[in-house]
Design goal:
The chain has seven helices and eight strands, in the order βαααβαβαββαβαββ. With 266 residues, the chain is an alpha/beta fold. Helix 1 runs parallel beside helix 5 and helix 2 packs across helix 4.
Length: 266
């Protein structure tokens, strides 16, 4: 994968959530039924293995070896391009320092650190306990950054917090189940304030060979798929960029006082 490329607590906190009940997931195709509990556990184990092997490389594959300065500067560059150049949509007149933001798929804290330098409070989650351990250590000097190991399919570990902006980058492109991605989008809807933005990137490339449980090359979305997901989950899909490519960016604005519906994601 080419890489183009922060709360109540006074310090970075790692919370490991016990294994939750996994919601029923609709199989991607009739030929490849997927047991959701098995799939989520497989994803967790594989990302734990990658973190033990070389977390920074698997988070940002531009280099095999990263020093601290280069690694965190690469996160700052991503935040500059995808967040700071888009503050009209992200902040909507609010001061960034007064905002609480959510990051899904924080890995070892590369983007989380950059977000913590801009926003007032940052909540970040990742499926991998190994990644969360590294992120916790890396963010000890960032008292406004808080990292949590989540279930791999929802945000229940965060309770009922309210956030002003949600962000995810090079994360959903690895998830092999459309229904798991739908679950995350519904969960963001639950936590995001009405009218606020969830900006994230999915795999848009079609025609790629992949195993149905591949935790590296995730399920692709067409433009129509993205619009359908937004509508099903209570969002306005106001902008979309990069359909048909690996970096398919989506701007989902939470509809005021809307409820997410529960259609099939197949």
């Amino acid at each position: 994968m080419p890489d183009p490329e922060t709360l109540p607590e006074p310090s970075a906190v790692a919370v490991v959530e016990p294994a939750p009940e996994i919601p029923e997931i609709v199989p991607e195709t009739p030929e490849t039924p997927i047991d959701p509990a098995v799939l989520v556990e497989k994803m967790r184990q594989e990302w734990d293995d990658r973190a033990r092997e070389n977390a920074r490389h698997y988070v940002a594959t531009a280099h095999t070896e990263w020093n601290d300065e280069e690694y965190y500067n690469s996160g700052r560059l991503n935040v500059f391009h995808e967040v700071l150049t888009d503050l009209g949509n992200v902040c909507q007149g609010k001061s960034a320092k007064d905002m609480t933001v959510l990051e899904i798929g924080c890995g070892s804290g590369r983007i989380t650190r950059a977000l913590s330098e801009v926003f007032g409070q940052v909540y970040a989650v990742d499926i991998s306990g190994e990644m969360i351990g590294q992120a916790t250590e890396a963010l000890r000097d960032r008292p406004n950054a808080h990292v949590f190991q989540n279930s791999g399919s929802d945000l229940q570990v965060l309770g009922d917090i309210r956030v002003d902006f949600a962000f995810s980058y090079i994360v959903f492109q690895h998830i092999p189940s459309r229904e798991i991605i739908y679950s995350y989008v519904r969960e963001v809807h639950r936590l995001l304030r009405p009218g606020c933005l969830f900006k994230f990137q999915v795999q848009g490339g079609e025609g790629m060979d992949k195993a149905p449980e591949d935790s590296w090359l995730g399920v692709p979305f067409s433009d129509a798929d993205a619009v359908a997901m937004a509508e099903a989950c209570g969002f306005e899909p106001r902008y979309r960029l990069g359909a048909g490519t690996q970096y398919f960016w989506l701007w989902f604005f939470r509809r005021p006082d809307s409820d997410a519906t529960q259609p099939s994601a197949s």
